[in-house]
Design goal:
Rossmann fold; five-stranded parallel sheet; 223 residues
């Protein structure tokens, strides 16, 4: 039987960074569900589909194929045969992904692929509803969070390091707005699963968070 670790939490909590590092240490496959939703969002954007047009989004989903490939142990997101890793990490795509992930047709398509991966492989999966909806039987569930100012500062530092001009207050406002949308959407809202362990990374560095989750994993594995 495969071992599944589900990591949920709000935008900017460091889920992807932590999951990737932990997966490498444990020899698990890392499945970045957020990247899959971003790939879908990128398709909608490049085809001029508005986030509010549910009918066109539902129609477009029939033409979208999102798969995961690995190259040198790094996850590659493939959209209709094209590697889109270099296009899906912008703020525009992130906001589109948050807005369109509320539609059941989008979620249904991607959840099917995510579950197939988890059935046969030891995986670490992160997102907004992994422990509550996608992998409700995951042996280890983590709810990773941090204060909005901490998350905004991390994003601000990341963007400025890349030479991108940005405003801290706008970044924090975007984060708070996305939190509200994610927590109040009708389909699979962001919330802590009843059997998930809360990990607040506000005062922790990456290695400390990884060690905390690894300890939880080791404890669960020994049960």
């Amino acid at each position: 039987m495969s071992m599944n670790i589900a990591i949920d939490g709000p935008a900017g909590a460091g889920k992807s960074t932590i999951a990737k590092k932990l997966a490498k240490e444990l020899g698990f496959i890392y499945v970045d569900t957020g990247a899959m939703y971003r790939a879908m969002a990128y398709y909608f954007l490049t085809n001029g589909i508005a986030s509010s047009d549910e009918a066109k989004i539902a129609e477009a989903c029939q033409d979208v194929d999102v798969t995961i490939a690995y190259e040198n142990n790094e996850q590659q997101v493939i959209l209709n045969g094209k590697n889109v890793n270099g296009f899906i990490r912008t703020e525009e795509v992130g906001n589109m992904a948050s807005a369109t992930s509320v539609y059941p047709v989008v979620r249904t398509k991607l959840v099917e692929l995510q579950r197939k991966l988890a059935e046969s492989t030891d995986v670490i999966m992160d997102g907004r509803d992994i422990g509550t909806c996608v992998l409700p039987k995951a042996q280890v569930k983590i709810y990773l969070t941090a204060g909005s100012k901490t998350r905004a500062q991390r994003r601000y530092d990341e963007l400025t390091a890349k030479g991108v001009s940005c405003d801290f207050d706008e970044i924090e406002k975007d984060i708070i707005d996305r939190d509200y949308r994610d927590m109040h959407r009708e389909t699979s809202p962001l919330k802590q699963a009843e059997d998930a362990v809360l990990v607040d990374s506000s005062e922790m560095d990456i290695d400390e968070v990884v060690e905390a989750i690894r300890s939880i994993y080791e404890e669960k594995k020994g049960c």
